[in-house]
Design a protein that fits this description.
368 residues, alpha/beta, Rossmann fold, Dihydrodipicolinate Reductase, domain 2, 7-stranded mixed β-sheet, 6-stranded parallel β-sheet, 13 helices, 23% strand, globular
Length: 368
């Protein structure tokens, strides 16, 4: 793609799109414009068009693709629609940026991936990878300043009352793909995997403790990683004091971040091991370096920085972040957590590979 303006369509104009679509066209190195939007709810669609200035609205995705010819489609629809909508966009020649989760299952994700070798491309919104703190942490971890990662804590303890689960597509394997593990905790788990890499084994518990729902409302897991690190993971929709918390115990320092829906610079804490006070100096330098690079221009983790990178990649003809293999790794951890919770014993990547029940569905059901 050249330096010409990138044409964007938004599909699904609910709260997520209303809040984040402006980040697609915010001032940045690549010119972009929202040219169309689609939603089956006309009132919601008209509100979106009025707020974001899109010139065309549709109640049908095929009509939008045929008439508006977008370069990029931003999917903000319920998860049960992602596979079919993504495939329609890719086959029309439009790249796709999809809100989490990218698909209901690994099988559906692989169907999308087969059509997205690029261009056109397919990418998932995992915005917590793109704040300054995450960039600084990855830089220090890769440089060896922190030593080996030994232990991690990854907690998404949020609160959602029964009305949240009463939305028709929520809390169902066939439309949402899971409960808080899939729909809430996936962001923190992706952030953890962005740092620690490939997982090798999961031992999990899933429970429905308090909500009327087909899926879980809480899960807990122990995760082993290829480099030897271990992690404790909790995902909850039952926690009145809401918190997103990640902690990494390295050989030479503990690094923590506590936030809710997006972290700032001041939400990060570094505690050096005895004799390693220089880690604090290295951390401050890494944060300063992140401020001076395009990799993390915003203090708060959020959509704007990832969207800027997606648009730059489309302009340059390169795969946008977060790429297929990375999205799939995160989705496979979710599948493994559900598989282990159902089986009552540890599972490995082979237990969620093609031909296994939890490859086909997060709930372990076969298609049909």
């Amino acid at each position: 793609m050249t330096d010409e303006e990138i044409r964007i369509a938004v599909v699904g104009t609910g709260d997520v799109a209303m809040d984040h679509a402006a980040a697609l066209t915010s001032q940045g190195p690549v010119r972009a414009r929202i040219v169309a939007a689609a939603d089956t709810d006309r009132t919601r669609l008209d509100a979106f068009l009025a707020k974001h200035g899109a010139p065309a609205g549709y109640d049908d995705l095929d009509a939008l693709l045929e008439r508006s010819h977008p370069d990029l489609v931003y999917l903000c629809t319920p998860p049960g629609l992602h596979r079919d909508q993504a495939l329609a966009c890719l086959r029309s020649g439009a790249s796709v940026l999809v809100e989490k989760p990218p698909a209901l299952s690994l099988r559906e994700f692989d169907e999308i991936a087969a059509a997205a070798s690029g261009p056109p491309w397919f990418a998932t919104v995992f915005q917590h990878r793109f704040g300054r703190g995450q960039a600084a942490l990855k830089a220090l971890a890769s440089s060896g300043v922190l030593g080996r990662p030994l232990l991690a804590v990854c907690h998404t303890t949020w609160f959602r009352d029964q009305s949240y689960f009463d939305v028709p597509w929520r809390g169902r394997w066939d439309t949402e793909g899971g409960g808080p593990t899939m729909g809430l905790g996936i962001h923190q788990m992706d952030m953890m995997l962005d740092l620690l890499g490939d997982w090798t084994e999961v031992q999990a518990i899933t429970r429905t403790q308090a909500r009327r729902t087909q899926t879980e409302d809480v899960s807990m897991a122990h995760v082993s990683f290829a480099d030897g690190a271990l992690a404790s993971v909790v995902n909850s929709s039952l926690s009145p004091r809401q918190e997103s918390y990640l902690r990494y115990d390295f050989e030479y320092a503990t690094v923590e971040v506590t936030h809710l829906y997006g972290y700032r610079d001041e939400d990060w804490r570094v505690t050096p091991a005895p004799g390693y006070d220089h880690v604090l100096t290295e951390w401050r330098a890494a944060m300063a370096g992140a401020r001076d690079t395009a990799s993390a221009v915003d203090s708060r983790s959020g959509h704007r920085e990832q969207f800027a990178k997606v648009l730059t990649s489309l302009r340059d003809g390169t795969p946008p972040p977060v790429q297929l293999a990375e999205s799939r790794r995160t989705l496979s951890l979710v599948a493994a957590l559900y598989a282990s919770g159902a089986a009552g014993h540890p599972v490995k990547p082979s237990d969620v590979s093609p031909g296994t029940p939890f490859y086909d569905s997060m709930g372990g059901q076969r298609p049909g």
